[in-house]
Design goal:
Elements: E1 2-6, E2 11-16, H1 21-33, E3 40-41, H2 47-57, E4 62-64, H3 69-80, E5 84-89, H4 100-108, E6 112-115, E7 124-128, E8 134-139, H5 144-153, E9 161-166, H6 172-184, E10 189-192, E11 195-198, E12 208-209, H7 214-226, E13 230-235, H8 248-251, E14 257-262, E15 265-270, E16 278-281, H9 289-299, E17 303-306, H10 318-328, E18 334-335, E19 341-344, E20 356-357, H11 363-369, H12 373-376, E21 379-382, H13 394-400, E22 404-408
Parallel strand pairs: 2-13, 3-12, 4-5, 8-9, 16-17, 20-21
Antiparallel strand pairs: 1-21, 1-22, 5-7, 6-7, 9-11, 10-11, 13-15, 14-15, 17-19, 18-19
Helix pairs in contact: 1-2, 1-3, 1-6, 2-3, 3-5, 5-6, 7-9, 9-11
This protein binds shikimate-3-phosphate and phosphoenolpyruvate.
Length: 410
């Protein structure tokens, strides 16, 4: 299936954003670890959260996390610490996303984990048992989810856990998010330099309300930047959010979008401001990279983005996906061999007629390219259902905002 999307002339709307999937998935793990009797308020109903809910409700010892990185990594640590024999698998792409740094660290702590197919990658067979803890070394340059997964089980270990982080630590705000949520459940940790120390402690169950997803908000910022008269109220966002992607508020003024905080969210408005060239290091906000790459091209603002190295091991190789699909729209992007940088210096080519934007099973490809309908008058997005991974109501919300969507069978 494909969607052909047409923009409204003006934008004035109120959108209730989806709950954060990163918070939802942490809180599910923390509720289980604390044997919490409290229901979670405003838990996400996205696919990545549903696979974790299904795992917790299942009688089976075989779990399929589909494409959910957080569910894969968090469950691996959780089950390594839980008596029993478990198998965790995912979709084909999940079986191409490395997990060995986490598995090696768990094995160093005494866990029994086997690779069922390719060495270093899911699916995994885990013989879970209580882990005593101690000191471990873990590289921080592949995925912060490995660190978060270990941290959440750390207070259960008799000797606590010291994680010595090695190499560059990417996606740091997600580690802070984990520690911040653990603290809400009564657990304290100390992060000094490259060492994180968690003593043996008891989790204290607590009622939690999940705040809205700042990464999902980014698509509305992008849309607002492209429509001359735009005002969007986004409900559910917190000003003092632990989500690193709330940094949007500081980044979008340069692309012509201002933010006003209101008691239950924000009002974003189109302004006349525009950067001559946009520079940013996305090492702390990798999930915003696609939004900014596409928005800058559509706004004709050249950019140089660094810190994008982790994009190649996410839902798809996002660097290649961005380059390929933007080329169809007439934008020629350059990256360096190591994928650490992505640049656009305004080089153009002829856009393809009736280009179909492929989404590579990546929700963020669909959502970041949807705003292309504004300067191009319409855009065709292939396999639009991919948005369910984090924002199932994305297309309904676009319709509510005045976009027209035609379904096309391919
Ligand atoms: O911990 C989390 O909730 C996440 C961490 C990030 O992954 P990496 O740490 O692999 O960059 C991010 O890209 C992902 O969408 C969610
Ligand atoms: C990378 C993402 O998710 P995950 O790694 O949890 O699959 C994402 O949502 O952009």
């Amino acid at each position: 299936m494909q969607y052909k999307i047409f923009p409204p002339e003006k934008l004035q709307t109120t959108i209730t954003l989806p709950p954060s999937k990163s918070i939802s998935n942490r809180v599910l793990i923390l509720n289980a670890l604390s044997c919490s009797p409290y229901p979670i308020e405003n838990l996400s109903n996205c696919e990545d959260t549903q696979v974790l809910i299904d795992a917790f409700n299942s009688d089976s010892n075989v779990f399929d996390v589909k494409g959910a990185g957080t569910a894969m990594r968090f469950l691996t640590a959780f089950l390594a610490e839980m008596e029993g024999e478990w198998i965790i698998r995912g979709n084909n792409r999940m079986h191409e996303r490395p997990i060995y740094p986490l598995v090696n660290t768990l094995i160093a702590l005494g866990a029994e984990i086997e690779y069922l197919e390719k060495e270093g990658y899911p699916p995994l067979k885990i013989k879970g048992k209580h882990l005593g803890g101690g000191e471990v070394y873990l590289s921080g340059n592949m995925s912060s989810q490995f660190v978060s997964a270990l941290l959440m089980i750390a207070p259960k270990m008799d000797n606590g856990l010291i994680i010595h982080l090695e190499n560059e630590v990417i996606s740091k705000p997600y580690i802070h998010l984990t520690l911040g949520l653990m603290e809400k459940y009564g657990v304290k940790a100390k992060w000094e330099g490259k060492d994180i120390t968690v003593k043996h402690q008891e989790y204290v169950p607590t009622p939690i309300k999940v705040e809205a997803d700042w990464s999902a908000a980014s698509y509305w910022y992008s849309i607002a930047s492209l429509i001359p008269e735009a005002e969007v109220t986004l409900l559910g966002l917190n000003r003092n959010s632990l989500q690193g992607d709330s940094n949007l508020v500081n980044l979008f003024p340069d692309l012509g979008v201002s933010t006003e905080f209101i008691p239950d969210g924000v009002i974003i408005r189109k302004t006349k401001k525009s950067a001559k060239k946009f520079f940013h290091d996305f090492v702390n906000e990798p999930d915003l990279a696609q939004t900014f790459v596409v928005a800058c091209c559509l706004l004709n603002v050249p950019f140089l983005f660094s810190g994008v190295q982790s994009l190649k091991i996410k839902e798809t190789d996002r660097i290649n996906a961005l380059k390929t699909e933007l080329l169809k729209l007439g934008y020629v992007l350059k990256d360096d061999n190591e994928y650490r940088m992505l640049e656009w210096d305004k080089e153009r080519c002829f856009p393809q007629k009736n280009a179909v934007i492929e989404t590579y099973n990546d929700h963020r490809m669909a959502m970041s390219f949807a705003p292309a309908c504004i300067p191009f008058e319409s855009v065709i997005i292939d396999n639009p259902g991919v948005v369910a991974k984090s924002y199932p109501k994305f297309w309904d919300d676009l319709k509510k905002a005045g976009f027209t969507i035609e379904e096309k069978k391919n």
